[in-house]
């Protein structure tokens, strides 16, 4: 019941939930490999983990590009000698009403949230098959459970991941674990990815006061990882108590 010695690759690890997860898992003895586009942020987080006695490395990765994600996973395997877990966490939320016709934002969410996660699965699966073990953790959202106005495309990308996750779980066989984690409103930089200013203001007014720390999600991921190999935690929903 420990993550000590596990190699965990995390996309979107330069801030928020990915950063919190990397720090917690490293604190518990995992070798964490961080991917995202902001190299300075990644370097700063890795330095802190190593200063605290943990094991970490990073690689600049844009999950919109399949080759980047493949190279990210290959880097993790090379640095740490294998890969136990991939956490497909990178995500953006430039939400808006459909009639705002922000079609570029829709494409961006499909590319990062859905395609990026599929690329993570595609990169990790051959490694897991070779090793005869592995764990895919996909970060989804409660936005796909209670589906609200302005969240149509965002929720659709997250529920596309949910669908893919369930099929992967069924296909996975006895040696591959598959977990989805659905966070509710979490205090991260995520709101900065909202490009429609009117929507951004409304969301901040409505949700700002109740957001909880990304550490809550990190603890959820840790729970799934530290179960014995025969125990597959399928789905975890973690939201603020005050979230309706
Ligand atoms: N915050 C919430 O309320 C909430 C609720 C439910 C679900 N979630 C989900 O949680 C996940 C993490 O979000 P967060 O709340 O921690 O927000 P965040 O602080 O904005 O973190 C998002 C991460 O994704 C990375 N990212 C964005 N585009 C990327 C790309 N093309 N390639 C690689 N990395 C990329 C960002 O790094 P770079 O910019 O450096 O690339 C950053 O590290 C997302 O999937 C989000 O949908 C968040």
TrEMBL record:
InterPro entries on file: NAD(P)-bd_dom_sf, SDR_fam
Keyword terms, alphabetized: Oxidoreductase
Xref: Gene3D superfamilies: NAD(P)-binding Rossmann-like Domain
Parts of the chain that traverse the membrane: none
Domain of life: Bacteria
Family: Belongs to the short-chain dehydrogenases/reductases (SDR) family.
Protein name: Oxidoreductase
Lineage: Bacteria, Pseudomonadati, Pseudomonadota, Alphaproteobacteria, Acetobacterales
């Amino acid at each position: 019941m420990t993550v000590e010695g596990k190699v965990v690759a995390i996309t979107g690890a330069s801030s928020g939930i990915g950063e919190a997860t990397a720090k917690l898992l490293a604190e518990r003895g995992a070798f964490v490999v961080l991917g995202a586009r902001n190299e300075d942020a990644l370097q700063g987080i890795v330095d802190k983990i190593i200063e605290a006695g943990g094991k970490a490395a990073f690689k600049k990765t844009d999950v919109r590009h399949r080759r980047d994600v493949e190279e990210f996973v290959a880097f993790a395997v090379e640095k740490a000698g294998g890969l136990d877990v991939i956490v497909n966490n990178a995500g953006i939320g430039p939400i808006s009403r459909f009639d705002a016709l922000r079609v570029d934002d829709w494409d961006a969410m499909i590319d990062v949230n859905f395609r990026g996660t599929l690329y993570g699965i595609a990169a990790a699966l051959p490694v897991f098959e070779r090793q005869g073990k592995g764990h895919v953790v996909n970060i989804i959202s409660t936005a796909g459970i209670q589906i609200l106005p302005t969240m149509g495309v965002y929720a659709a990308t997250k529920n596309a991941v949910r669908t893919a996750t369930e099929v992967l779980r069924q296909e996975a066989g006895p040696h591959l674990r598959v977990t989805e984690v659905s966070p509710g409103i979490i205090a991260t930089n995520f709101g900065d990815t909202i490009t429609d200013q009117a929507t951004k203001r409304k969301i901040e007014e409505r949700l700002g006061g109740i957001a909880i720390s990304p550490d809550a999600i990190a603890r959820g991921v840790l729970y799934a990882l530290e179960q014995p190999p025969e125990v597959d935690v399928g789905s975890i929903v973690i939201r603020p108590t005050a979230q309706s």
